From TrEMBL:
<feature type="transmembrane region" description="Helical">
    <location>
        <begin position="106"/>
        <end position="128"/>
    </location>
</feature>
<feature type="transmembrane region" description="Helical">
    <location>
        <begin position="68"/>
        <end position="86"/>
    </location>
</feature>
<protein>
    <submittedName>
        <fullName>Tripartite tricarboxylate transporter TctA family protein</fullName>
    </submittedName>
</protein>
<keyword id="KW-1133">Transmembrane helix</keyword>
<feature type="transmembrane region" description="Helical">
    <location>
        <begin position="158"/>
        <end position="177"/>
    </location>
</feature>
<dbReference type="Pfam" id="PF01970">
    <property type="entry name" value="TctA"/>
</dbReference>
<feature type="transmembrane region" description="Helical">
    <location>
        <begin position="134"/>
        <end position="151"/>
    </location>
</feature>
<feature type="transmembrane region" description="Helical">
    <location>
        <begin position="6"/>
        <end position="26"/>
    </location>
</feature>
<feature type="transmembrane region" description="Helical">
    <location>
        <begin position="411"/>
        <end position="430"/>
    </location>
</feature>
<dbReference type="InterPro" id="IPR002823">
    <property type="entry name" value="DUF112_TM"/>
</dbReference>
<keyword id="KW-0472">Membrane</keyword>
<feature type="transmembrane region" description="Helical">
    <location>
        <begin position="352"/>
        <end position="376"/>
    </location>
</feature>
<feature type="transmembrane region" description="Helical">
    <location>
        <begin position="254"/>
        <end position="275"/>
    </location>
</feature>
<feature type="transmembrane region" description="Helical">
    <location>
        <begin position="189"/>
        <end position="210"/>
    </location>
</feature>
<feature type="transmembrane region" description="Helical">
    <location>
        <begin position="38"/>
        <end position="62"/>
    </location>
</feature>
<keyword id="KW-0812">Transmembrane</keyword>
<feature type="transmembrane region" description="Helical">
    <location>
        <begin position="388"/>
        <end position="405"/>
    </location>
</feature>
Amino acid sequence: MDISLILQMILAAGIASVLYTLIGVAPGTDETAVLAPVTLVLVLTGFEPIVILTFFMAAIIAKKLTDSIPVAVAGIPGGVMSAPMVEHALVLKKHGMPDISIRKMASGSVIGTIIAIPITFILANGLARFSDIITQYTDPIFFFGAIFLALMARNKWVALVSIFPLALLIQGLRHLYWGVGIVPEGETVFISFFLGITIGPVILTLFELLNRDLRSKLNRYNTKTISVKSNWNIKGFPNPFRILTKNETITSSLTSVLGVITFFLSPVGMTILLGEVVSSKIKDPVKKAARAISSMDALTNAAYISGTLIPLIALGLPLSPTALGPAHALFNAPPVFTQDHNLHHILSMSEFLWATIIGAVIAILITYFVTVKYALQICRFVFKRIPHEAMLGLFFGLVLLLAFMDAGWLNIAGVLLIGLVAGVLNRLGVNYGVQFMTLYAAPFIVNNLF
């Protein structure tokens, strides 16, 4: 790598850290919805692959660092992965300790990042030797992966039954496009369908707002008042190992290791499970909440890092919930990346390592420092000046644009249809992992099972 490329990587990491520091603070910003479209645009724009990976790693770490702020300050999850921490964060908030809550969660994230990176590369290197065997059975793996994730879901029967009609809908739309001639036969529309599933809940909510009866039943609220402390001063760069107690550091390290090993499982499920396990025997509510949130935040960072890098380095196939969601564009973004030509085939192990280290270091230096030192000021600014609806509208518009680029006006209707179905399934308890696996396995399911 030459100096100019390294400078581009540092700049990309800096931009990602600043951008997703602000986005992470905004309540309710789903990781997939805010990361996947932006990453896809960078890929299609033609940036260097190693620069894109650096951007993504910095973005995911920054997002996971800052989505703890609205949880601690207002009891509102900053993203899907921070939702399990709300209950514990409210305990600390009730005792007048939102600042402690933010410091504990952010410090747990840093420990999770530090531990996850070396273990991830070791595990990826070990799995790489089996990549040829695994790639021979790609389609059945995706199908059985959908079944496996469905069985792990809370509403497993709904998830299982939904696999087949969703696959039929996806393949039916593809055959429709081939039949009317808007897409050459054999060319697969994928990206816009993926994005339709990603923002399915948003599309469903927008359609519900058009229904007068449903709209009239919605709750109306007055302006919500959120009180924040103003006397919060920290000198110098915060040390996560001093912010966490010895026991909190140990449990955060343990959950980080387990988060890497279980990269193929649902990060939300593992966060809830291990967070409760490591804190279950603690009687004091404040100590229990602090132990839980620090350990859970460490696990989420580790799960996202490993869930992205292990499939990318070892296989080149998105065989994890994270790879199927936020990191999907790194695996499959035609015509730039395909299953046979993506970052797995382009970058060397050393390039993966440098991109990860630069992204992680820049994100920690910028976002961790800012999160711990200026969390309340940032939270106040975002809550007052950056509407959640505006960000969702931006990403929704981007999805419609990419849908038009994929297959014209008809595909916008197709994406809205897939979004409606995905939104309903999501509300019924069918998680993103099942839906994304079904998207990949749709040709196999229709052509071989039906």
